[in-house]
């Protein structure tokens, strides 16, 4: 049956590209339907801060006029990006009021260029926590992006608009950034798939930074295959990001059918179970049982790793914004400003100690991968908190939500390991599980995620309130 | 200066924040001080957690500059 434009809302990127390539639907029709959907849903979800309609329509028309678009793996697929990506003609606001005074970007971020080279069509920029220093998805300037499964709840941050837009069926594909968990936390709370690749794998050129030594970029989608296709389209050499690794592309999509046979999969114990809600543990248990992961492994000194990541984040973030703090402190989100001012006051010895510990911790964790191929851990300690909720209780201790939603993601991105966050469709709210692999082994995490999806253990649930 | 866990930093931390704000030319509205102090206290406790872990003098930091 032909795919008609109005039915593309819950279609995957792969399905849309196949339909466009088969001539069952035009790219223009897909984009027109997407733009209409964004106009209808954004007042509720508040995911988009800018819609690039004119550009998207022009790109779609050009695609429709292209004779060999069958070679494009993302032909006609609409996507959007966290608003810290440069989009030609737009100021790169990075969730802030201050950056609105910046001149419009003169060129797209590298990853946008490469997705569009694969046939995808940019339709807009997405809401985010100010300067990415956030796990909630709230933004004092633009308002909170909302959880598609319950509009009174957080989308998760800092890539909250990315989670909301993909989880709410506005677009099948979005890009975000992850410094300490900002792809994996919104994926978990919004019930979608997210990939945080190995540090240095995907180019960050022409995106606004937060903590350069920890920043990663990656995709959100409603299927593992879409993560893999977009990830493959974004691999490649780019000298414009100094941290970008000099590695040949390693396509993951062809690896997906291999499943998890022969892989040694274990569950992270200790730190990763302490404080986890019953929902987080139930999701972990379902995934572990499905892949036959019976053994638990203790990642050493995880709490200290999280502490070190916290210190590096506070201080590098403060260094980035020092001049803006001096000149425009009142224009920041107060919650971000107060954390950054505090970060500026942390003695340098603390940062060096944290970086020394980082190298030691990396060596210890890499040794674990001699005994296993992948580690399972919760993505967030709980399902989506309510918007505005200031504190929650983890392991009997009341603590602030904003810095602590990422307690399970922060120690992993600290050493740049690749992770796929998979959604377990619990009722009434979904929650994610991290599939963690050794550096440069994205394909292993994606294979496991794909197999779990085939087994119906993980899935991006359609939000009942938003319907089809 | 890395705070030790459990140390009573209330008064020294207040003084440190005042001095650091002046030294670093950072604005510090009276209304912001409490939140800045809370955040700095948490960060210094994390720093202390890291610092108390003993590593050999030869251990090098993670970022390595290459000429």
Question: What report would you give on this structure?
Answer:
The complex is a heterodimer of chains A (468) and B (67). Chain A is globular, with a radius of gyration of 20 Å. Chain A has helices at 13-21, 27-45, 53-64, 110-117, 160-167, 184-190, 224-234, 278-291, 302-328, 334-344, 348-368, 401-404, 410-413, 442-454; strands at residues 48-51, 78-82, 121-126, 146-147, 150-154, 173-178, 193-196, 216-221, 265-268, 296-297, 374-378, 391-394, 397-400, 419-424, 431-437. The model of chain A has no long low-confidence stretch (mean pLDDT 96). Chain A has 468 residues and is of the alpha/beta class. In chain A, helix 5 runs parallel beside helix 6 and helix 7 (224-234) runs antiparallel to helix 14 (442-454). Chain A has an eleven-stranded mixed beta sheet with strand order 1-3-2-6-8-7-14-15-11-9-10, with helices on both faces. Chain A has a two-stranded antiparallel ribbon with strand order 4-5. In chain A, strands 12-13 form a two-stranded antiparallel sheet. Chain A contains 14 helices and 15 strands. Helix content of chain A is 36%, strand content 15%. In chain A, helix 8 (278-291) links the parallel strand 9 (265-268) and strand 10 (296-297). Chain B is mainly α. Chain B is built from two helices and no strands. The radius of gyration of chain B is 15 Å and the shape is elongated. The N and C termini of chain B lie far apart (32 Å). Classes of the chains: A alpha/beta (468), B mainly alpha (67). Chains A and B meet through helix 9, helix 10 and helix 11 of A and helix 1 and helix 2 of B.
């Amino acid at each position: 049956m032909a795919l008609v434009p109005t039915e593309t809302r819950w279609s995957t990127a792969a399905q849309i590209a196949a339909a466009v390539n088969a001539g069952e639907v035009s790219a223009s029709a897909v984009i027109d339907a997407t733009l209409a959907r964004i106009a209808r849903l954004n007042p509720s979800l508040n995911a988009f801060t800018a819609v690039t309609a004119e550009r998207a329509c022009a790109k779609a028309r050009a695609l429709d006029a292209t004779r060999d678009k069958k070679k494009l793996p993302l032909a006609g697929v609409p996507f959007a990006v966290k608003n810290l990506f440069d989009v030609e003609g737009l100021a790169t606001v990075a969730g802030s009021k201050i950056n609105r005074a910046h001149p419009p970007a003169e060129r797209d971020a590298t990853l946008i260029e490469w997705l569009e080279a694969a046939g995808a069509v940019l339709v807009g920029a997405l809401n985010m926590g100010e300067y990415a220093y956030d796990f909630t998805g709230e933004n004092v300037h633009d308002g909170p992006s909302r959880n598609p499964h319950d509009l009174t709840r957080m989308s998760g941050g800092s890539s909250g608009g990315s989670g909301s837009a993909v989880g709410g069926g506005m677009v099948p594909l979005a890009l975000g950034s992850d410094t300490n968990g900002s792809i994996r936390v919104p994926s978990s709370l919004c019930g979608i798939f997210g990939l945080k690749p190995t540090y240095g794998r995907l180019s960050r050129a022409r995106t606004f930074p937060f903590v350069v030594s920890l920043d990663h970029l990656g995709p959100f989608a409603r299927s593992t295959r879409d993560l893999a296709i977009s990830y493959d389209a974004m691999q490649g050499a780019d000298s414009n990001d100094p941290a970008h690794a000099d590695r040949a592309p390693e396509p993951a999509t062809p690896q997906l059918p291999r499943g998890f046979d022969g892989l040694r999969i274990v569950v992270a114990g200790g730190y990763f179970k302490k404080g986890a809600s019953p929902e987080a543990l139930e999701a972990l248990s379902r995934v572990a049982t499905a892949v036959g992961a019976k053994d638990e492994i203790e990642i050493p000194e995880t709490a200290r790793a999280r502490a070190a990541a916290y210190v590096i984040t506070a201080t590098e973030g403060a260094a980035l914004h020092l001049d803006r703090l001096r000149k425009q402190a009142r224009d920041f989100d107060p919650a971000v400003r107060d954390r950054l001012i505090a970060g500026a006051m942390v003695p340098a010895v603390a940062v060096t100690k944290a970086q020394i510990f980082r190298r030691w911790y990396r060596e210890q964790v890499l040794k674990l991968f001699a005994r296993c191929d992948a580690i399972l851990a919760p993505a967030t300690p709980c399902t989506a908190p309510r918007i505005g909720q200031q504190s929650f209780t983890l392991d009997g201790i009341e603590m602030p939500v904003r810095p602590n939603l990422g307690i399970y993601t922060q120690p992993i991105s600290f050493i740049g390991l690749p992770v796929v966050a998979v959604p377990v469709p619990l009722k009434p709210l979904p929650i994610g599980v991290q599939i963690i692999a050794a550096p440069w082994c994205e394909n292993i995490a994606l294979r496991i995620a794909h197999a779990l999806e085939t087994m119906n253990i993980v899935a991006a649930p359609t939000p009942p309130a938003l319907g089809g | 200066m890395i705070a030790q866990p459990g140390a009573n930093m209330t008064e020294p931390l207040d003084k440190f924040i005042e001095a650091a704000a002046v030294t670093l030319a950072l604005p510090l509205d009276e209304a912001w001080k409490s939140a800045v102090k809370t955040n700095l206290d948490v960060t210094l406790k994390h720093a202390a957690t890291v610092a108390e872990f003993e590593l050999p003098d030869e251990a090098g930091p993670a970022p390595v500059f290459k000429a």
